[in-house]
Write a structure and sequence with these properties.
Length: about 280
């Protein structure tokens, strides 16, 4: 392994936090947060490579797995859980796994992240195979639960990537497609739920959004495959149809109710118009 320093555990640039005024605390946290997007920008080429692999695998029936512990695990679960309602992709195509299981989503499970075997055991429950892609998420890049999982995946020719916030970590060296966002010391020393967590969230958003667009889940800039699971989303769907089909609200509501999906309504109506036009010519 190459030389490795945990910048995520480095001493904060700020001292005596407890003596700071609230306004100064907020300004200083915000100042640190501003650097996160710049750090993410530096690794866009690495993100691009991983996204292209994921798209290729998913087009052939593969799945995307996120696996992590603590904050990193929770961020993966949030991103995975938002894909079906936002983009209409079927449940079980993007899966988030956290050390300690569902209990750990809300409450820390002691020492769950230290088990080098459990990550692979958790993946096996989903009958993981070489059509799938596994992204290990760990700010430090040293979480045994995650490293053990990706090493086992790699040995079985399952495509692996990672999102970490240290350079040259054991996790990054254990995967095929590492993404290393070096954000530097946290405002509160070692509190990786802050800048590191923000960086991971940004990258997860970039990955899943780009993948879903590439899989055809967006038309123009609209979420035409979203699940119509509440009144707000139904109204959004109506407005999409009004805009794209250049129709009134009453007709848009009727079409959405009839087809139950924005894309289906659009495609059906466009096809109908083309047929009508062809007959008249």
């Amino acid at each position: 392994m190459s030389s490795f320093t945990k910048t995520t555990e480095s001493e904060s640039h700020y001292q005596n936090l407890e003596k700071m005024k609230v306004l100064d605390l907020l300004k200083n946290i915000n100042h640190e947060d501003k650097s996160v997007a710049r750090s993410v920008e530096k690794v866009i080429p690495s993100i691009e490579k991983l996204v292209k692999v994921i798209v290729s695998k998913m087009k052939k029936g593969g799945r995307l797995f996120y696996i992590g512990a603590g904050t990193s695990g929770r961020l993966g679960i949030v991103d995975a859980s938002e894909c079906p309602p936002t983009y209409g992709i079927e449940q079980g195509k993007v899966i988030g796994i956290i050390a300690g299981g569902d209990t750990a989503i809300r409450k820390a499970v002691e020492f769950a992240e230290d088990d080098t075997q459990q990550g692979w055991k958790d993946l096996r429950k989903f009958k993981i195979n070489n059509k799938d892609v596994v992204i290990g998420i760990a700010a430090s890049g040293t979480t045994p639960y995650v490293i053990g999982a990706v090493i086992e995946c790699k040995s079985k020719k399952i495509t692996t990537g990672c999102i970490t916030c240290n350079s040259g970590s054991p996790l990054a060296e254990s995967v095929l497609h590492p993404i290393e966002i070096v954000v530097g010391p946290e405002f509160v020393s070692g509190s990786t739920r802050m800048k590191s967590g923000t960086a991971q969230k940004l990258v997860l958003n970039m990955i899943s959004t780009s993948v879903m667009i590439q899989l055809g889940k967006v038309k123009g800039n609209k979420m035409v495959e979203m699940k119509l699971s509440n009144n707000k989303l139904v109204q959004r769907g109506v407005e999409m149809l009004m805009s794209i089909l250049e129709t009134n609200e009453k007709t848009a509501k009727m079409l959405l109710s009839k087809h139950g999906n924005v894309r289906k309504a659009i495609l059906t109506e466009i096809k109908k118009e083309k047929t009508k036009k062809a007959k008249s010519e």
